[in-house]
Fold:
Amino acid sequence: MTLDHLQDQIEWYDGKSGRNQKAFKFLKICTISAAALIPVFAKIEQMSWITVGLGVLIVILEGLQQLNQYHSNWISYRSTCEALKHEKFLYLGKAGMYAAAADPHALLAERIESLVSQEHAKWASGQEQGQKASPPSSPKD
Structure:
């Protein structure tokens, strides 16, 4: 049961890490591309509205990145996934602290929950930091 839970956690963090990595890279490629096009369109008099649109697009893309924290989530989820894999291999190999543990299975359960709890605490802290960086909402929101 504990190994099944561990595998579920590894797969969840692996999937979330991959999705956040893709979202981050997609937004960055779009931002860089839009920024690179601004000087090109700025040279053409009739294209000023495109230049403005690209500037607006950059602000929106960067806002989405800031709001959703794709980069920090990618790194954090990947780190937790790798730490969980490390615990799995130590446990299966009866190595490290598992070699001398009176109850390796209970130790594994404790270590899994510790890693997941640490990740959750980091995520919550990041969400709080993101809220502090955002302007306060109006009473109508």
About this structure: The radius of gyration is 22 Å.
